[in-house]
Amino acid sequence: MSTLPTVDRRALLGVASALAGAGALPSATLAQTPAPSPPPPAPVTRILARYVVGARADALPANVRKEAARTLLNYVGCAVGGSEHEAMDMAIAALGPFSGKAQANVLGRRERFDISTAAFLNGVSSHVFDYDDTHLKTIIHPGGPVISAILALAQRRKVGGPEFLNALVLGVETECRIGNAVYPEHYAMGWHITGSAGVFGAAAACGKLLGLDEQQMTWALGIAASQSVGLKIQFGSMTKSLHPGRAAQNGLMAALLAQQGFTANEAAIEGKDGWGQALSTRRNWAEVTEGLGERYEAALNTYKPFACGIVTHPGIDAAIQLRNENRLTGAEVETVELHANPLVQSLTGKTDPATGLEGKFSIFHCVAVGLIFGAAGERQFSDAMVRDPRVVDLRTRVGLKLDAAVPPEKCDMVVRLKDGRVLTKHIEHALGSLEQPMTDPMLETKFSDLARDVLPDAKARRLMDLCWNVEKLDDAGRIAVAAAV
Amino acid sequence: MSTLPTVDRRALLGVASALAGAGALPSATLAQTPAPSPPPPAPVTRILARYVVGARADALPANVRKEAARTLLNYVGCAVGGSEHEAMDMAIAALGPFSGKAQANVLGRRERFDISTAAFLNGVSSHVFDYDDTHLKTIIHPGGPVISAILALAQRRKVGGPEFLNALVLGVETECRIGNAVYPEHYAMGWHITGSAGVFGAAAACGKLLGLDEQQMTWALGIAASQSVGLKIQFGSMTKSLHPGRAAQNGLMAALLAQQGFTANEAAIEGKDGWGQALSTRRNWAEVTEGLGERYEAALNTYKPFACGIVTHPGIDAAIQLRNENRLTGAEVETVELHANPLVQSLTGKTDPATGLEGKFSIFHCVAVGLIFGAAGERQFSDAMVRDPRVVDLRTRVGLKLDAAVPPEKCDMVVRLKDGRVLTKHIEHALGSLEQPMTDPMLETKFSDLARDVLPDAKARRLMDLCWNVEKLDDAGRIAVAAAV
């Protein structure tokens, strides 16, 4: 025991009786009083929850519904196409033994798992070719986290088509608006935004289908906030595809927990020590809260025409157009000159790709297959294709003229033929951009190309029709059944 | 088509032939060449993986093995005690329907689930009372993520006691060393470090039990890096307890995926756009890589003697010592003066708690129950307890004298009795600190107190014996079976 210093009785009792008597406290204590808190920010989590809970399917504008159906079709094609990737075999071998009752399909495969496992697996396959949809403002791939989750959920509880499409749109709104609020700083920190923002989209969309009330939806978004997935360093590894899969699964689980009353902080997105603080150096919450139900990020979704990085797309677009307009085969080409932004070299400058995956990072390979095959789909990035003598020969004839004054979405191409002719092509906006969107027939061609080795043609055709007509389905889960082998 | 600007043929071919011919590029391009990269950091992920793969159970020092058994016993007691919390009922209602084959027990309950679901649930219950172990250097609660994962895994594949304890230690080393490398900046950003670093501990420990090789272990840590869970804003909500649960589950899944060859970036922890960059503003990787196998963070684990925030512990310790030394009952106390660090008021200054949970944030309640009951376990923080007239009366007689010169781990207390006596107590290091650790009998009393309403006394006794003797078990999974009701 030691001697206690003299105690100021008045101060002591002042504190003990009310803890409000700061005037009676010794000055040493006053100096410790924290500064007044700044005014609370807008209740972002709650505003978003209220919007998602109240948004009605019949209020969706026609263009948004149309784009959502295109998003769905593109998603299903990518997931079917990726379903035989070795990453899927590994994930199924690792996680399948722990799956619950078979309730939901893995698109493009015969296995059925519980909805949580199925959501994860479909999210992985939808992204494994890097060929999925892109919200260009944030580089989020919106479909994977959201549709993987709600399609699995729709196999457990019957969901009508309009309700399904509404949930899809609300999920995309949620993830893309949160992404807008923190892009590009969040992305620059190292986050793979498709996983880190995607979890909110999955939670919101699943919560909508589960009929959560505003309080539950707030908790669902809060539970999701603690479970962001994804780092950019994983690009080039299988874990990149794990990100949308886990985002789908975590969001689904967040909604299911919230439905049972499992609580989370109600300002988890915007509050002190919350998601925005921890995961971004800047936040503009107005991007989340303003114009809800008036403007739709879901209407701004785009689809890759080519199965490789977006900086290669103007060059590939030019190559394919020149081929088709001039019936080129590749053999008559002497040289190709691509006048492009320097990013094309720094991101895709690989001159001598050894694998199909490396081919995606070789603008020379990309342009060569565009000129020879008029396509740059997944089959143009096989290991065999990068060794094809015609492709190897042509890619060595492709040269770059780099110029920072050329925006990344544009390019010019000059093709000199062995017979002396010179062909040129200017690309103002590459195919797949908002200004030059993939047409519905182009999306169907992409789908068919992805599905060809997985599903019979007639089955792929029926699956596309289900996607286009999703709003007429009384059971949206049929899409998942139809996509199984 | 547009006219292509003049092309410098030499530059073009220089690039096309080798992409190394920077000297031939136009100056506009040269200006875009990125600066040389800094030298690569130490391969932290791989060094850690190599250590975990190679570390042998028989190399563990005796003090580390002893502390690991204490960690195990404390973990089991906390998980059993928390097993009937409503958060557990909700989580089981939400996730149980999707569980796979019943392979693993939920401690303190009758339900059995697949090992992934069980790992999650045990992680939740171990933390739901905020009564678990603490690595004081980082405020990580090491047991929850690691033991929840390996105890479930040990129910799927038989694991001997020494092997189990070794995995436990290696998991704790992994999470605490990574925590050391980024604390306090990571914590200050908003991360709940038990979840965000805990996932690495679970991955390493499960990977060890699965016998991963160095490459697989590197992937397991890499997959874990993408799946950090936990925000500080969740403190006070059920999602705080979700964090160690999900960390356990994500780490287990990471190890299972890596075992199948699922790849991740091999510098996911330390690399550009990796975990350290995204989740902390400072990193000291030497904390991870130096002294592996020589010094053990697992030997620095501590255990809460009281079921409330650590700043209240010196005051409670003083109250209990004065009570026990003077056979006080509370009724004879006129006033209590607690001379303490101002944090005691700012973190636990609630004068009139209405619920048991609020009682944990009231130093006045804490001191009162310490004086009356000689304890501040979970049952001293029931809703009924904060309404007990004796407790209410005494807590209004407790006053604070705050002084920043008093370190948070110390305090002085003066108790004036109605008969005029004055009792004093100085606390140099509160019970439960590294300097004044909980003794084995104290840990047993805590365990018994937690288990009392869940398990019969004889069963609790046998369970404690299994934990103390874990190294003699040929099947560590028996602990989980013995902890079920």
Quickly give the structural class of chain A.
Answer: alpha+beta
The CATH architecture of the largest domain in chain A: Orthogonal Bundle
Overall pLDDT confidence of chain A: 92
Regarding quaternary structure, what we see is: homodimer
Over all CA atoms, what is the radius of gyration of chain A? 26 Å
Report the CATH superfamily of the largest domain in chain A.
2-methylcitrate dehydratase PrpD
- The overall number of domains of chain A is 3
Q: CATH first level of the largest domain in chain A: which class? A: Mainly Alpha
Task: Report the sheet-strand fraction of chain A.
Answer: 5-15%
Q: Which term fits the overall shape of chain A? A: globular
Strand arrangement, major sheet of chain A: 6-5-7-8
**Straight-line N-to-C gap of chain A:** 78 Å
Which topology of the largest domain in chain A does CATH recognise?
Answer: 2-methylcitrate dehydratase PrpD
Please give a structural write-up.
Chain A has 24 helices and 8 strands. Chain A is globular. Helices cover 50% and strands 7% of the residues of chain A. Chain A folds into 3 domains: 1-33, no CATH class; 44-304 and 471-482, 2-methylcitrate dehydratase PrpD (Orthogonal Bundle), CATH 1.10.4100.10; 310-427, 60s Ribosomal Protein L30, Chain: A (2-Layer Sandwich). With 485 residues, chain A is of the alpha+beta class. Residues 1-34 of chain A have low confidence and may be disordered. In chain A, the strands form 3 sheets. Chain A has a 4-stranded mixed sheet. In chain A, helix 6 (115-127) runs antiparallel to helix 7. In chain A, a hairpin with a 6-residue loop joins strand 1 and strand 2. Chains A and B meet through helix 1, helix 5, helix 6, helix 12 and helix 13 of A and helix 1, helix 5, helix 6, helix 12 and helix 13 of B.
